Amino acid sequence: MPRARAVVLIAAAAGLLTRMLIAANMPGPADVRIFHGFAKAIVRYGPIRIYEQPLPGLPVYNHPPLAGWMLLGLNELSELGIPFGTLIRSPASIADFFCALVVFEIVRRRASLGAAVACGVGVAASPVLIATSGYHGNTDAVAITLALIAAHLLVDRKAPLAAGVTAALSISIKFIPVVVIPALFLVALRAGRPAFLRFGAGFTALVALVWGPVLATVPENLKENVLEYAGGGYRLWGLVRFADLFGLPQSFITFIEGDGHFLFVLACVAAGVWLAWLRPAQLPVVVALTMSLLLLLSTASALQYLTWAAAGLFVVGFWEGAAYSCLLGLTAVLGYRGASAVRWSETVLQLAEVGWVVLAAGLLRGVRKVLDTQPDPPGRSPAGGRPVAAPRTVEPTGSTVN
To answer: What is the mean pLDDT of the chain?
Structure first.
């Protein structure tokens, strides 16, 4: 075990170094400049009042409250002479380091040690994560990593209080993991009243601390900018892309890009809750699948969104993760090399179409693996007491879920 952890740790460190070298030596996409603009605006208006400002020359500020405090801190560091372009890509790169470690810990409890090492190293070396974290930045990788850690803490580490705090942190840096919060609460509830109260206390305290001042000051602006944000209107990915290719009516496309996208969000929440109810001990896998499903059904498109499923599919299995990371990594690299990261070439669009199918296949495989695991033994708590992973009589060789 120590040797296996050391291998993943070395790979994660090498991955972090690779990402930081890219961040230090390449300018990055337009988001680097945009985040710098956000940081300057936050210095002027503060991380709370920023939501009510028009911000000429910048897009809508659609990031949760913790991101504002992060940008404020990064701007302070830039005043010391560290380039902001390097700093803004550091949180995602560091998150990938920890993500590789937590994926190893999640997988080793559900599969062979060799599979766990392969999956941890896969996250560290993932082309799509290197591209989206080291080159692009943004906060997607941070949110995904925190969501996986929260699930790991809850069912594998039996630490509901820390899990609640971590879950709240995940949606406070980027709102997308909100789709897994109901599943986390459900598993905490099934673990018994003490675990549920500790999880709820940690979650509520952190939300009150981070979100409370903004909700008390500019609630409508926060709702409009963050909670109701539907993404850009580019037809580059997934359902919207296929609807456009198949010539579906404009009214349908407008609906799924508008109010209809909430139906897909609800579908992700429902799928996560359903799987968590059936197999609470598999919560980390369920979280990974739910975030991957959110990307599959997303009606918005951006290259950094490809992060949502990258680590998660390695939780499902090495080959699922490797197929996705390599294909979508190529998609991301070619997309970033194009004229614009939000205007993809025909080649990138076609790669993304194939990547969407690979993502769908990985999701189906993951759901089947979760359902194939043995139900939790009666009276066994998923977030307290002894571990609940199903007994393994035969060591699997390639999969990461029993």
So the answer is: 92
